[in-house]
Amino acid sequence: MDPAAPYLTAEAGGAAAGQGFALVTGLVDAAEWLYGHWYMLALAVAVCWSGGEWVVRRLAAKASAERMALELVSSRHFDPSLEEIFRRGVQLARASTAMPWWAPRRAKAVQIRLRADGSSPLRYRIEGPAGGQRLLSITPFGPDVTVHRARQIADKPRTHTVRAEFILRGKPTAPLREVPLAPDPLQPLVDAVSDLRAELGDLAEIRLDIQRAPKWALRARRMQLMGAARRAERREAQRAARWLRQDASGIEDSLTWQLQQLLSGKLAAGGGRRLVMPPVPRRVEPAEALGKLADDDHLVRVQLLVMCASNTEGRAHARLAQLQAAFDVFGGRSRWAMRGLRLGPWRIGADQWPTKRGFERRWSLGHCQPPRANWVRLEELTGLLKPPTLHCRLPVLAGELPTFAFGDPQLLLQGIYRGPDGRERLVATYAEQTLFEVGVGKAGGGKTERALAQAIGWAHTGGGLLFVDPHRDSWPRALPFLAHEDLMRRIALVDLNGLGANPRLSSWNPLGMHHGQTAHEVVESITDAYASALAWDDATAPRAITILTAALAVLVAVNEVACQAGRPRDQATIFHVRALLTDAAFRTAALAAVTDRLNEETQSWWQTVFQTLPQDAFAVVLNPIARLAANPVTRAFLGQPAGVYNIRTAMDSRMVVWVCPGGNGPTDRLITALLARDLLRAVRSRRDTPEAGRVPFRPYFDELITLTGAAPETIAAIFEDFRKYRVHVHGMTQLLSRLPTAVRLSLVQNASTLATTAGSTSAIAPITAEWGDSPSPDRVATMERFTHYVSMNVHGHRVGPVQLRGPHLDTVFAAQARPRHVPALQRAALANAHALPLDQLLDSATRQLDRVVAFLAEHSPASAKPVLLTKKMEEYE
């Protein structure tokens, strides 16, 4: 062994000890320097943190620039299950990570935006990473939810804006209250924005950001919660031990305990105090301590931001308070509460420095930086993961259903809507989109009053209309509100009720050709009207239809000759069918005058078939005409050669025509059938006018049961065809079931507006069935008088059924009432219809056959021979 080895070892040990001492001395000196220059360390940390935050913000802003937006629109029948909603939540959580690898955590989120700005009750949008578009576009909700790309929303600045961030308060591990799906969990939020007024600049928006939980943050939160639970358990054990010792000491010091010890001899034997064993802290179970944070499955972090704005002071703060109350519905042991401090009347929150700037950045860029407590499971967000369902009662806003403005030709009055805030407004639909309308309800329920209000408003905008009322009650009701000088020249009254000693009547010649009608269309129109009113068809009355068609063809041809000769006053009327069929001289002259105008088939029929017919074959044709002739009113109305009534001219010149057929007897039904078929012919004749040049026209049919009893197929065709020619029909009836099947099906199928008042449940059921029995027939049946449930079509979307109060003329159009001008309007309406006294018209109708005979004598060849009737034993059935 080297003698110097111990010295070398000692020297090495001393050197190591010196180095260790020097290291400790250096560390102490560094600590002293840092203590003396702490601001340098703080500055370095601040610079590093600021640099890192700047880089993170730049990267997050770059990632947010590639976000996409989808808007979800649910149908009225949207009724998802809990499983479908949960699957949607899983999709949202998965889509939040569809970002580039370099994107910061705050940019990895999917945002649900619930927005109300007056355009709709609550718009439901999804915004998230562009990479998640394909995943989010296909929803588990099926066809009841339409998903389409949405553009970025640019809001105009409002005068007053309030902001708020909501965090979870209460027990951090407890879930939110489980809110059922019926009624819709969104209903409180919808109610909170139901009184929003777009004209005041009101705006309310809720943004819920969903972010998948990072593992390290979840582990840290669990460690914190477990540590807090263990500390709480230890404190509880210590508190229990302290109380136990105090109780034991109190018992041992009591007189009773001392006596017991003395009697038992323990005290004399020197027995001391008994040993008290303190309670041991019980084991903390993770599932109990962590609650909803115990499992990793479907756990997300959320950020809930709210902004309300308005141009009116105070409305934004009131809206925020309403939304805060709406979020209380989700509260249980854990609840949503506004983040911030309240100092007396002041609140320090997202609207004040220093949090306002961060709120604005997160709001504009869609960044998610949730508070530490905002951990939830997807099941807790069930109510916010889907659009409104059928269980949600949506208000009707001005953006959905416009407010009626008197004199606006684009609007059609519908009724009075009472909003959730109690404010009432007149609502309307767009005239171009209201193609057909059906009103159902019991007598006196307000159907006709509502139709009158609509027609009067339309007339004041310059629109043309036809109001057909068999009972005439609507005419005196409407008079005071139509008695304006600018309307008087456009209003005509065709009243066949024959009131008074010598009433004044207008005139109409269904066979007249002085208005330029097409001959075969006139023949077809009258024949179809007869067949409809008398229940003829090719199986039951083929011969009657043939005879009437052939006779009308001859008379219409005669009228064509008279008009071309400049003598419209010499035209034949419907009553000359009898002369044509039974008067050989008249028939010979008529056929001779129009031989070149009849086709070969018609000429052959008159030359061959007609001669084989017995005289009693004409009775079925002549009997209805005889009934018309026996009634002085109908004889005067239909017996004039150059009738004034021309519905095609009324359409094109925007006339307001009131037609009162006068009842529902056999003769009245025939008149109604003729008028209805003529209307159908006139509207179809608009084929000669380009679509852009067709003037809108609105026929109103009151008492459809009466009208369709005369012409069911015609009324059905009216509801099926008129839309093409810009003629929009409004029909009112007490019972849908009383209407013929063809008419009922056409009405319901094509109705843009469907309305009902109160009535029996059996009568209302067909209407409520079209709405999916929401509302139910029982609910509609118990409505107050003049109250309607109405479904309308606005911009291609169905609005309603909405409960409206029917417009009362004396209230809605009080400013337009001119009762002193009613007599002037009466005179003007009759003058525009060229109405003449009944006796004068009857005299003209009686002498018209002689005028036609004289005209035919002038235009018939001299060699014309009579066509005699021959009798046969056989009759054609």
Q: Could you say which structural class the secondary elements and strand pairing correspond to?
A: alpha+beta
Average pLDDT reading = 83
Instruction: State the end-to-end CA separation.
Output: 152 Å
Low-confidence stretches: 863-877
> Count of helices?
30
Largest sheet: 9 strands, antiparallel
Number of strands: 24
% residues in beta strands: 15-25%
Estimated helix fraction: 40-55%
- Give the CA-based shape: elongated
Radius of gyration: 45 Å
Give a written overview of the molecule.
Strands 1, 2, 3, 4, 5, 6, 7, 8 and 11 form a 9-stranded antiparallel sheet that branches. The protein has a 9-stranded mixed sheet with strand order 16-18-15-19-20-14-21-22-23, with helices on both faces. With 877 residues, the protein is α+β, with helices and mostly antiparallel strands. It contains 30 helices and 24 strands. Helix 14 runs antiparallel to helix 22 (666-684), helix 20 (632-638) packs across helix 30 and helix 22 (666-684) packs across helix 23. 43% of the residues lie in helices and 16% in strands. Residues 863-877 have low confidence and may be disordered. A hairpin with a 2-residue loop joins strand 22 (787-794) and strand 23 (797-805). It is elongated and about 160 Å long.
